[in-house]
């Protein structure tokens, strides 16, 4: 729907059949876009409910990680990314919306209420950001292009800050500390049988249809990286070159508190950063291993000089434009993540 054809806000409240149908289509499209958001192990731990002119976002208990994410920290962050995708989609369709986060503390699984308020003018940057949703992808290969430039880094930082979260770019010495913490986290988790079983469930042949990480997204052999990436317990089908990610820039996405509301904001910031990176041709890879353990999460806080609480580590850089993009991870059908009854 274009701004010229969008209904007047009073029509939204009046609920005329034409307006109701147009809004229902826009909300459904927003949920479809939200379903493309990144999530821990591609669990897609969100469930939406559409009622009239609003959407409600909930954690889906069946798609949570009991071992790697017992407090649903990363699941909530993932849902924040989905929320931001939905916001971007609605704005690009010419709708203004108000978001209430954690609307009822007595029901913490209810993460957000998104209320459509009426039409909004659509500008080119909003359209470009919405288009980036379908282009965004996860690339676990070593970075093959030059180091990300200062202008690109500033654009990503501004996108993060616009969502009420901060980004701390690590110095060379701090990257070594990050690598040490990541190595410790991976070795600890790989010796935990329950953790291994959970990872195998979401990355093996038994993962639920439409979710999990397929072999096409898992490196065919361990990549050469300064900061070790996720060890999935088996090799995949993603071809890996002989390069090393020496040009990578690492940063910590952090907030000033460490509660579910902050995790939700961090997910929105991740989405904003990743869509911005996609628009400007940069590569972004979230690294969560050091966030999954209390000890290494504390080590990340030390790297922040204790000015904030770490929510996620990001690897930033560029790739060779001639390199083929990895396949997109599978997605659940929209009718499985939305309840409009």
UniProtKB/TrEMBL annotation:
GO terms for molecular function: oxidoreductase activity. Residues 322-341 are annotated as: Disordered. InterPro entries: Nitroreductase-like. Signal peptide: none annotated. NCBIfam families: Rv3131_FMN_oxido (NF047509). This is NAD(P)H nitroreductase.
